[in-house]
Amino acid sequence: MLTPNACPLEANRLGQFRARAFENMIGVAMANYAAPQENGHSVAFDGAAFGADGAPRDPLLVQAGEVVGVYLASFDLDRRRADHLREVWGDAFRRPHRDAALLAPEVAAPFGRPDAAGVPDNRAVR
User: Fold this and answer.
1) Cβ neighbours of residue 110 under 8 Å, at least 6 residues apart?
2) What pairs with residue 43 in β-bridges?
3) Neighbour order of strands in the sheet with 2-5
4) What pLDDT does 93 receive?
5) What is the pLDDT of residue 42?
6) pLDDT at 2
7) CB-based burial label for 83 (10 Å; 0-12, 13-18, 19+)
8) pTM for the complete prediction?
9) For residues 7 and 16, what is the distance between their CA atoms, to the nearest angstrom?
10) What is the DSSP string of 76-95?
11) Is 20 helix (H, G, I), strand (E, B) or coil?
12) Sequential pLDDT tens for the chain (126 residues)
């Protein structure tokens, strides 16, 4: 997944992006404006936080500096497929029958907001 970006990339944003790659078990790349418009630091993570042996590994493939440049990241798709078969993430343990409350159109406490446009004031607990 490629994400264009136009804000300073610092430890918190980079950590969040790294976590999204891990949680979704996908390769991600973020392209950011170089300095002086932003601070550069475009990155790519392969999403594999653990090796085939189960040991932790760094999923960082590339991190650019602050200057304009072309940076290449090589994503190993065979490795990603193998990881999907081995890891507990993904859809193997999904429980779609339990998602009904998340998908329901009703707004329930504590999320009811009378000031939200087009959303009824449903502050009562179902």
Assistant:
1) none
2) 30, 63
3) 2-5, 28-32, 43-45, 60-63
4) 63
5) 96
6) 93
7) buried
8) 0.69
9) 14
10) -HHHHHHHHHHSS-SSTT--
11) helix
12) 999 999 999 999 999 999 999 888 889 999 999 999 999 999 999 988 888 888 999 999 999 999 999 999 999 999 888 887 877 665 666 677 777 777 777 777 776 666 665 555 544 444
* CA pair distance 54, 51, nearest whole angstrom: 5
Distance CA 85, CA 90 (A): 9
The residue type at 102: L
Query: Which amino acid, residue 37?
Result: Q
Token pair 């304009």 is at which residue?
A: 68
CB contact set of 30 (below 8 Å; sequence gap of 6+): 2, 3, 4, 5, 9, 17, 42, 43, 44
DSSP per-residue string spanning 25-79: T--EEEEEPPTTTS----EEE-S--B-TTS-B---EEEE--SS---------HHH
Q: What is the pLDDT of residue 91?
A: 63
Q: Are 9 and 43 in contact (CB under 8 A)?
A: yes
AA identity, residue 77: L
